[in-house]
Amino acid sequence: MLLVADLTKSFVTPEGGRAEIVRVGRFKLAAGEQRALRGESGSGKTTFLNLIAGILAADGGRVELDGTDMAALPEAKRDRLRADKIGYIFQTFNLLQGYTVLENVLLGMSFGPRGVDRARAVELLRRVGLEHRLGHFPRQLSTGQQQRVAVARALANRPKLVLADEPTGNLDRTSAREALALIREVCRENGAALLLVSHDDGVLAQFEGMQDFAVINEARAVRVGVTPPTTTEAAK
Amino acid sequence: MTLPLIVYRSLRQHALSTLITAGSIALACGLLMTVWVVKTQAQAAFVSTSTAFDAVLGARGSKLQLVLNGIFHLEASPGNLAASDYELIRKHPAVKTAIPIAVGDNLRGYRIVGTVPQLLTNVEYAPGKKYAVAPGGKVFGEAAREAVVGSFAAERLGLKVGSSFQPFHGLTFDEKALHEEVFTVTGILTPTNTPADKVIWVPIKGVQTMSGHDPKAATDVSAVLIQLRAASAGVMLDLMINKQGNRMTFAYPVGAIMADFFGKISWFDRVLALVAYLVALVAAGSVLASIYNSMSARQRDLAILRALGARRRTIFGAVVAEAACIGALGAAVGFAIYFGLLTLVAGVIRAQTGVVLDVTEGHAVLWMCPLAMTALCALGGAVPAVKAYRTPVAETLAPVS
Question: Which of A50, A75, A99 has the CB atom closest to B9's CB atom?
């Protein structure tokens, strides 16, 4: 379902040179598979997810999603593929604050090829226990509830792949466990593969297929301890 | 659903700046539409008012002054004509109708015009329209101290059939200059939407023989309103009176004189229009500045939308659509300002000249201006839209771990 091959991404250092932050020779994820990657802050795992999602353009290599090389696509097609096949749960949830809970989920659908399906959005929110909060704005919700909205939104467009970047980073231990269980369960119900990155051992311990990102990532800059890039630099 | 929702939410999130910007656009739109409509309607109204007579004959002086005095009841008369001059023109074979008028008095600022009853009974003030006295009234007698009051003047002065009044000397109201004669109102004119509505019509002898007026001029007239049998006669009379003579002025053709007048004051329209254009430009600029300045606050939302799969062109379109919506909202409110201003201006013009503007009449500018304003705002929105278009998603969303 997902095949990453010879994927590289470098950034411009403050001195004007370039430092490589991602160099992944080969990484595979089967349909419906759930995999966790462990990595410390600055190890390049968010950049790795952004490259898979097509939010960042790779310097080289392939990101094949259902046989389509995302890295070779022009930006507009990457956007379309992301809307169609990928759900992204951000560490900070990245909910749209000016939109209601329901609108946040509807927007998760609206850029995909299937368009808006209000009934499905409501059903997803019911599934995550927020059917009574449809008209609320994110600021009116607890952190755990916001996290659940982010889960519902990520699954709204029936993605083949769900990317989760430290999805429980802002939650307490109990909420984190519940949230993780919910993400895994909903992904399973929807037949979506899950790739989760975290540095939390408590989270990682729940995955059988946990991998250390440092093993996958052969980037020299990360290995020699180069200061992690700012996001601006990483985007260059 | 997506684009309208994004635009709606963004407008709601920035409601204050949206309202302020839309307000400035409304002002620009309202001003532009008012300037255009007032200019067009006023010109049309003045020109149509001047269709009743082909020419005005008066003492030597300015043709425009004669027309304004004789037909629009503005300005002072440049002087008097002797009764023999009036008789001469009245009996001229090329003249179909000659109506003498005498001015020089007022009633609390409303002009008293002495004339012959035929003006109110025989003359069409517009094609197919004759003056009419409202039921219960009648036209004044030729030798009596009677008056027929224009509808606007009657309303303002509170005059009714049977009311009596004493005129004041001069064209401007001076309470010390009261004449001793008492006139009785015999009729109120039905509204004509012409300057006749703000005039008090009395027999010409009533003005000519008013106490305090020069007895030597008791048969003089201020001007003669003329209808010709043929247009070619006007050229001939113009040559005879203006070129070969030196005592009188033959103001002909009235329509051309008024058009020339509007041409001379067109700089005023242009200044008003220029001010309105500048306001429109500033308003469009404020849309640009308002959205552009809020881009920093919006960038995270835009990046989230992009991460959800929104294409760059969708984001660009949303910002341009938002700017266009602000423009359209402003244009809609602009109609309220337009109607308010037009009603105000129409009231002033009516009070000053008697000419009535139709505030409900359509004009191309009423759809062109809102459309142009909306397009201008959309254009202004293109600048922040480019910034939105370039929003770096990964950089904006989260720190690299």
Answer: A99
Q: Do B313 and A76 touch (CB under 8 A)?
A: yes
Residues of B in contact with A111 (CB under 8 A): 2, 305, 308-311, 314
* Rounded mean pLDDT for each run of 10 residues along chain B, 401 residues in total: 86 88 89 86 77 90 91 86 92 93 92 94 88 93 90 93 93 88 95 89 91 82 93 88 87 88 82 82 84 82 88 91 93 94 89 78 88 91 89 70 39
| Residue A229 three-state SS | coil
Instruction: Give every CB contact of residue B69 below 8 A, 6+ residues apart in sequence.
Output: B56, B58, B75, B76, B77, B78, B103, B222, B223
Residue A9 CA from chain centroid, whole number: 17
Please indicate if any CB of chain B lies within 8 Å of the CB of A98.
Answer: yes
Residues of B with CB under 8 A from a CB of A: 1-2, 5-6, 9-10, 12-13, 300-301, 304-314, 392-401
Bridge partners, residue A36, by sequence: A196, A210
The shortest C-alpha distance from A162 to chain B (Å) reads: 12
Distance from CA of A154 to the nearest CA of B (A): 8
> Which backbone phi and psi does B89 adopt, to 5 degrees?
-75, -35
Give the list of residues 6+ apart from residue B302 with CB closer than 8 angstroms, or none: B315, B388, B391, B396
Q: Which residues contact B306 (CB under 8 A, 6 or more apart)?
A: A55, A79, B312, B315, B391, B393
ipTM score: 0.82
